[in-house]
Design brief:
alpha+beta, Glutamine Phosphoribosylpyrophosphate, subunit 1, domain 1, 6-stranded antiparallel β-sheet, globular
């Protein structure tokens, strides 16, 4: 796992060095550069495979094709064998070199052969052609911009900031989206002119022209097996999942598994234990607040599967002490508070291993979130007249606010929100901090005048246009995979782990497994109100029933309580009326209103206040320097 950066056009050696060194955390083991005319590549390496000869930038035999590569190709041994039979000769044992020869063999079609997580840049010197690629599901990040006929790219936004052509100008249309999504949806960023490459896409830069091409997408194809034959479905699922885990156990460095005690991580731990020739190391963290703690379940699974289990208990002071680290991790505003425990877990895990497997992707593929259950209820509620929905909303809003994780009142209030929108947007409202109306109250008059609220759901609607013939449930799974997974869950995992120079691999993201699960009928994912039905059926003779059937807790932190206690002074400072006025972005009256209501426990505004705080932390750290 590594960090990459580069540009073609205006710039010099000092710029590429600064860009690359800002990514040192992604690759602490090595640093190298390549320059040809006005092309510059920079590379930071975290050594995982072929520790002695796997340096980059890497070239073919005659130095006409060069590559910088961040990620892992899990089928590289099979690809290498095929290429050797066709006469290709290798000077290393890396997956990186396989990509070069595959490009020589297939041109741009080489991407269809890769099974892995990656972001890469490949320079074809003969054609003066630069190809920049992101993996199918967006596990590895890639930012880019074109300024004054210069194409600039990097693994993280902080590296883009090191190029003198990149200005830190806020895009206020995308600021509006941040407060709706709690992240900025791909391909946008909060910086004007800087973009995120979409998962499953690649860019071709040639003759000062940029072309964006798609090589893969999430699909819901007809199943290749008889899905009424439950035994056949389970066997296929078992084979694919076992193979996905086994492929991700290949490494020349110590390896472990994140184990929360939920069904996804417990499943990955089970298959890792079955496919690994050593005792599996597992890692978990816990919290003093029992409504957020899952450590007893992680320990139970570790005992049953006989793993070498490592546990860290975190206090509020530990989590809050990570604030400065998280500010560095989040070079885009990011309001998912679980990045804090993810960072601490990654830091703890790195003490023992360099690679960890995780359960990311299971919820999105298998309808594992409570919102999928809520959709069933929402369909019924939508049959009520508007007056009935309004009356229900008023009644439920009278419930006293609880600060516990996924409290009853929190879930009910979410369920009753968003009925003025179509169902797919309502689902996003359930996940969001602010809606459009609230954003119009939040932003200052100056910012309101230059914000186009008609673009609020542009990316969401664009994605829906690609699956408009699919049932509603598949459309929502598509959105979860393309937005929430790619822009929240995988961003959190990548940034938190790579900040600690730890590589995290996600077996559920194997695209063969993704294609299979997406081909299954929805009732095998959400059966009645049972989420992840087919996974629970697969694991019922492999894991304890209380692990399989317990309610989803999530990797949360007690934000609502912190805002009134440990974080009170910090919050009051960043959201003070004087600070908000001087900044000029937000309406100080509205900010004070939601803060006061939360403090008086009239309304649980945890998500709103936290999203504001994380913007302020980002703004102070990256835009005022």
């Amino acid at each position: 796992m590594c960090g990459i950066a580069g540009f073609h056009g205006s710039g010099n050696h000092e710029i590429i060095k600064n860009m690359t060194r800002s990514l040192a955390h992604r690759g602490p083991n090595d640093e190298n550069f390549y320059n040809f005319e006005n092309l510059y590549f920079g590379f930071r390496r975290l050594s995982i495979i072929d520790l002695s000869t796997g340096g980059q930038p890497m070239s073919n035999e005659d130095d006409t094709v060069w590559i910088i590569f961040n990620g892992e190709i899990y089928n590289f041994l099979e690809l290498r064998s095929d290429l050797e039979k066709k006469g290709h000769r290798f000077k290393s044992k890396t997956d990186t070199e396989v990509i070069i020869h595959l490009y020589e063999e297939k041109g741009e079609d080489f991407l269809a052969s890769l099974n892995g997580m990656f972001a890469l840049a490949l320079w074809d010197q003969k054609r003066r052609k630069l190809i920049v690629v992101r993996d199918r599901l967006g596990q590895k990040p890639l930012y880019y911009s074109v300024v004054n006929n210069t194409f600039i790219f990097a693994s993280e936004l902080k590296a883009m900031f090191q190029h003198n052509l990149i200005r830190k100008d806020l895009d206020f249309d995308n600021l509006n989206k941040y407060f709706i999504y709690e992240y900025i949806p791909t391909p946008q960023t909060l910086i004007k002119g800087v973009h995120k490459l979409e998962p499953g896409h690649f860019l071709v830069w040639q003759n000062n022209q940029l072309v964006n091409k798609q090589y893969w997408d999430v699909t819901f194809k007809k199943p290749s097996i008889d899905t009424s034959d439950k035994a056949m479905v389970l066997k296929t699922f078992d084979d694919l999942l076992s193979g996905a885990v086994k492929r991700r156990l290949i490494a020349d460095v110590p390896l472990g598994v994140f184990l929360s005690g939920g069904i996804d991580s417990s499943t990955i731990t089970y298959y890792a234990s079955r496919n690994f020739d050593q005792q599996v190391k597992t890692f978990s963290i816990g919290f003093d607040d029992k409504s957020f703690d899952e450590s007893i379940y992680a320990q139970e699974v570790a005992d049953i599967l006989k793993t070498d289990h490592h546990h860290l208990n975190c206090s509020p002071a530990d989590l809050l002490g990570a604030m400065s680290d998280v500010a560095q991790i989040s070079d885009e505003p990011f309001a998912d508070a679980s990045i804090f425990p993810t960072h601490l877990l990654s830091k703890f895990t790195k003490n023992s291993v360099t690679v960890a497997l995780g359960g990311d992707g299971g919820d999105e593929l298998l309808a594992g979130y409570p919102t999928f259950q809520a959709l069933k209820l929402a369909k019924l509620i939508r049959h009520l007249p508007v007056s009935g929905i309004t009356a229900l909303q008023k009644m439920i809003n009278l419930l006293p606010a609880s600060y516990n994780n996924f409290s009853f009142d929190f879930k009910l209030k979410r369920l009753m929100s968003g009925y003025e929108y179509k169902t797919e947007i309502q689902n996003q409202i359930w996940l969001s901090s602010f809606n459009i109306k609230e954003n119009k109250n939040l932003l200052s008059n100056d910012i309101l005048s230059i914000t186009d609220f008609s673009k609020s759901f542009f990316e969401l609607d664009n994605l829906l246009s690609k699956v408009k013939g699919q049932p509603l449930e598949n459309r929502l799974i598509y959105l979860y995979l393309k937005q929430y997974l790619a822009d929240d869950i995988l961003v959190k995992a990548d940034r938190a782990s790579m900040y600690n120079s730890l590589e995290v691999r996600a077996p559920f993201m194997d695209y063969h497994l993704v294609d299979f699960i997406n081909s299954l009928p929805y009732k095998l994912k959400l059966n009645g109100f049972t989420t992840k039905y087919i996974l629970k059926e697969l694991m019922k003779d492999k894991l304890p029933a209380n692990i399989i059937n317990r309610s989803k807790k999530g990797f949360g932190v007690p934000v609502a309580k912190w805002l009134n206690s440990e974080l009170k002074d910090f919050t009051d400072d960043l959201l003070s009326t004087s600070h908000i006025k001087n900044q000029g972005i937000f309406n100080p009256v509205y900010v004070n209103k939601i803060l006061t209501e939360h403090r008086q426990k009239k309304v649980d505004h945890r998500k709103k206040i936290w999203t504001l705080l994380m913007f302020q932390v980002w703004y102070n750290n990256w835009l005022t320097q």
